[in-house]
Amino acid sequence: MADRSLIFAEAEFRGRVHRLQARMAEEGLHALLLTSAADVFYISGFLTRFWESPARPWFVVVPAAGDPVAVIPSIGAELMGRTWMPIVRTWDAPDPRDDGVSLLTETLCALTPTNGRIGVPMGLETHLRMPLGDYGTVATRIAPRSFIDGTATIQRVREIKSEAEVGLIRETCAIADRTFARVPEFVAAGKPLDEVFRDFQITLLQEGADWVSYVAGGAGQDGYGDVISPAGQQPLAKGDVLMLDTGAVRNGYFCDFDRNYAIGRASDVAKRAHHALFRATETVLERLRPGMVASDVHSLLIKGLTDAGATPSGGRFGHGLGITLTEWPSFTPLDQAPLREGMVLTLEPGVVTAPGRIMVHEEDIVLYADGPQLLCRRTPADLPEIHA
Amino acid sequence: MADRSLIFAEAEFRGRVHRLQARMAEEGLHALLLTSAADVFYISGFLTRFWESPARPWFVVVPAAGDPVAVIPSIGAELMGRTWMPIVRTWDAPDPRDDGVSLLTETLCALTPTNGRIGVPMGLETHLRMPLGDYGTVATRIAPRSFIDGTATIQRVREIKSEAEVGLIRETCAIADRTFARVPEFVAAGKPLDEVFRDFQITLLQEGADWVSYVAGGAGQDGYGDVISPAGQQPLAKGDVLMLDTGAVRNGYFCDFDRNYAIGRASDVAKRAHHALFRATETVLERLRPGMVASDVHSLLIKGLTDAGATPSGGRFGHGLGITLTEWPSFTPLDQAPLREGMVLTLEPGVVTAPGRIMVHEEDIVLYADGPQLLCRRTPADLPEIHA
């Protein structure tokens, strides 16, 4: 597209605002204050990597009725002006005397009654992306209006993806699919892991990623120690299992899945682990339906792994996916969140292959009434081997 | 390096902690609670792209004396265990019942007296990276201990870079230098801007970036509309000025500078603007000394631009740089922060070239007692032309 602010038609954004306003009415909210990159993008389509700079706060206020309002640093006026956002108010940031505090206060007061309740995401998986001190000042200055927890409002709406969103996530997944298909081009025994990570990112860009927000992985005999470390310089060795995982981004939408490869001939341990992981996700692909809760997926995955004779690892076994690398819910024994039609999710079981060694496997899906649909190409049932 | 936790010797981290503790003593703080990726990395060396997932909070607590304590999700135990951090406490996150709240509360209470004052960064350029609701719960449970603003404590320490840090920033700048030298390889009239951005990122990776956290730029006749938009598909045209700006990362340290190129023959407007930008930064390179304040740099840049007959643009004209893309202070008329020996800074003046069009130019420097030293290769005085 010529203009990234036109990723969606205006109707997509208006639909989001209406769904938020319907929930706000139920919950007695007079406005919703959003500060994170993802939430601001969700309402406005404002997409920039400038969030990488912590210098300036950005705000979107969704009133109980009517159009949302962007309250942003003037450096963003040009880009926000190209979005559908009907009202954009700016200040010259950074301003050490008043970095948007007065403008935000004014905006909130103008949009809500004197005793207004203003939702702010305060729950799990949320952060306030503005200085805490300024938040306190705004809270004081809007009184007797008050800030209350708006997490459920934004999460219940954002978690249901429109078909336009599913299409974009599918597109990003396809970039990673094509990249994983090319892994044998740049992986070989003897190659240092950090060079593998570098070539993996390069290939993702070549295949169409706008940027690569997340790459992780690991390599080791029959498994790896953890899945969040940056790559070291140790060379790949025959007998290693290599895992590559990516959250690439196109049009603001993430993929998040991984693939495993044996370097040289796969060991029996690694083959069995891969089969168990494959079988566990297969079970969920067959049985998952809307109305189940997040912990049901965890149970299904655990059962699939143990039925296959594997030892499940700890941690969560998948999560939501969309405009951040991970979204709620979490496939853990504790998360009772209902799984709803239109959710985009990852299935990410892990097994222990040896003391301190694990293998993990991940697929991206969308949940429909009749079950899940894969958004990425299914991993092969047999652990692929790289002979080079 | 084989292990990214060994970017620095332990003495580097211990020095940081001691400097923080000296400031904490001055400011009457009994502990400092840090939650952001940059602050956690600064204390521990814990470097991972996993921060891209908003699911889990991570904490480092620096007591008034003694060793810092990491309080983190167990998924990070392996990686944190490879850092120097002497005490690592973990919980199984995400836990919807108690996502680290009790463990953090306990840790803070054990490390501080009953009436303890615990610093939390609350000021400009800071964010609390934990759910606001959980922060409120911890605040209640540590009472009569209290959270107070710890911004100055962390910022006055972080803003002075050690020679080891300067060396790493120089290394990242060199990656961008080599990449900018290769721009003529992948830029030509007719090429869509989004393909240029993609090749720019690929080249940064090829030249040694671990990842590319920030790319921005613009292209247009005699200048560009803004400097934070993602690239569209419009092709480069003869007469365009192309600007590419990057915050690439190696070993956790950023560069942040840009370069301008004329596509085909440079227009007189663009040439004059580039000369004015060059001359303005030249003035600062000659005159900047510790003891000046941030607004002095803004004044020098404005004077340099107007002396050269150019019209300065608005906004800030540079900032700190290090483990985030931008750090304090800001080169604006309002920022009175003292400039100190050891600060790493960017000079980033902008000029208006036509209505709605600007050109910006950026250099990275370290400030020493006898003046600044460039960390990147100086931009050529004459706007480079790309004839292809």
Write the layout of secondary structure elements.
The structure is a homodimer of 388-residue chains.
Chain A: H1 10-27, E1 31-34, H2 37-44, E2 59-63, E3 69-73, H3 77-81, E4 87-91, H4 101-111, E5 117-120, H5 132-141, E6 146-149, H6 151-158, H7 163-181, H8 183-186, H9 193-206, E7 211-221, E8 240-250, E9 253-254, E10 257-263, H10 268-287, H11 294-307, E11 311-312, E12 318-320, E13 327-330, E14 344-347, E15 350-354, E16 357-360, E17 363-368, E18 371-374, E19 385-386
Parallel strand pairs in A: 1-5, 3-4, 5-6, 10-19
Antiparallel strand pairs in A: 1-2, 2-3, 7-8, 8-9, 8-10, 11-15, 12-13, 12-14, 14-17, 15-16, 17-18
Helix pairs in contact in A: 1-6, 4-5, 10-11
What do we call the CATH topology of the largest domain in chain A?
Answer: Creatine Amidinohydrolase
What is the arithmetic mean of pLDDT of chain A? 96
Low-confidence stretches of chain A: none
Structural class of the helices, strands and pairings of chain A?
alpha+beta
Strand content of chain A: 15-25%
Regarding quaternary structure, how should these chains be classified?
A: homodimer
Number of helices of chain A: 11
Tally of discrete structural domains of chain A: 2
Spatial arrangement of strands, main beta sheet of chain A: 4-3-2-1-5-6
Task: Please write the string of helix (H) and strand (E) elements of chain A.
Answer: HEHEEHEHEHEHHHHEEEEHHEEEEEEEEE
Question: Shape of chain A, please?
Answer: elongated
**How many angstroms does the end-to-end distance of chain A come to?**
39 Å
What's the CATH class of the largest domain in chain A, please?
A: Alpha Beta
